[in-house]
Description:
Elements: E1 6-10, H1 16-31, E2 34-42, H2 48-51, H3 57-88, E3 105-113, H4 115-123, E4 128-132, H5 140-152, E5 157-160, E6 176-180, H6 185-200, E7 203-209, H7 219-227, E8 233-238, H8 244-254, E9 259-263, H9 269-275, H10 278-285, E10 290-293
Parallel strand pairs: 1-2, 1-4, 2-3, 4-5, 6-7, 6-9, 7-8, 9-10
Antiparallel strand pairs: 5-10
Helix pairs in contact: 1-3, 4-5, 8-10
Amino acid sequence: MSSIKNILAVVGDATNGRASLEAALRIGRHLDCHVEVLHVRSDPTAALPLVGEAMSGAMVDEMMGVAEKESGQRAAKSRGVYEALLAREHLTDSQAAPGRHVGFATTWLETSGIEEQVVALRGCRADLSIVARPTGDGETASLMTLNAALMQSGRPVIAAPPLLTDGAPRTGAFKKIAVFWNGSTEATRAVAAALPFLIKAEEVTVLRVEEEEWYAETNDLEAHLAHHGVHAVVSKVLPREGRTGRSLLFAAGDVGADIMVMGAYTRSKLRQLILGSVTGYVMQHAILPVLLSH
């Protein structure tokens, strides 16, 4: 039985939302669990403290009206993407009470507020959150939402990769999994969170990079996984050269991984400044789903 029973999939807009939806539907079906699809309408009143004193009442009302209209259009487009995917997968939206879901099902949730705050709060009550990773420098909101889910919910997060140029999803069948292991607390939590995937996988590759700050052999991890019925484990040590994140992504690609598992932000702040953030690099460049835990 899977220990992941409830997934929260964040649909920020019709573009990046489809990436998280595609990943969520495949993962929900793979683990036979319930998927809550969340869209957060922007709250026009949140900007009032910034502009209210410098504008007349009529101008404030007009701006709020425009913002409310745009928020509604964005929500409608996001819901349209959701319904189109349900139709493609021959599914229907389930509004059954919690605990009454049997196997794979999806539910649309819509609320108003500040997206990263709502996601962090709702993420606390999910076993796993799925958020589309940012695809460019202009996606500050997406990055803030992803980091809020990762750093504030206390739950693992999957960063969903962007779709292919033809609109097809990149999410595979989760038969081959790459695990970045450095012995850190964050990596340990990520492995524990990924057990439902690891147990069902046909092949698991443990990747270790030679680093001075974290040094951990993989023998104990392999024994731990074997206790859980994960036996097809291969370990690889990657040389410490260039960017660690780049080495990890290339290695995951070489073994044909469908998903990568890693701890998030395990380096000290000083080493992140000097060497760069491995997590940040992976989240910016990964073309496969990445399960992260902090």
